[in-house]
């Protein structure tokens, strides 16, 4: 039989460029992240008790 292979040179170059970091896709993020620490006011001893189940 006949074996026919086709290549998309432009697509191959695009994928290579993306792999090499030549093209940067913009990603926009929005929202809020709660960074409060519920254990901030505890002493070291209180934290140790929490860790050990006491």
From TrEMBL:
It comes from the Bacteria. This is Phage terminase small subunit. It comes from Enterocloster clostridioformis. The lineage of its organism: Bacteria, Bacillati, Bacillota, Clostridia, Lachnospirales.
